Amino acid sequence: MSLASITIKTDAEVKKEFNDIxxxxxxxxxxxxxxxxxxxxxxxGIPFELKLSEPNExxxxxxxxxxxxxxxxxxxxxxEELMEALNA
Length: 88
What we know:
Layout lengths: L11 H13 L4 H15 L13 H11 L11 H8 L2
């Protein structure tokens, strides 16, 4: 089996965190990426769901309000009201 190199560009922090997780699992980045590639070949596709999530009704409402400049500071008049809602 001949080996080929792959060069990718990624965010430095993403690389560090990815490497840290690989090491915790007793792997290195090369082994982990090869595992991913072999799984793609075996399953003939990406081995996890790729989807665009649809915002829910509340998210649409908040987006609409913010575009109108409404409720930019939230629906709470006091810190106590906010804390009560967070603890609910």
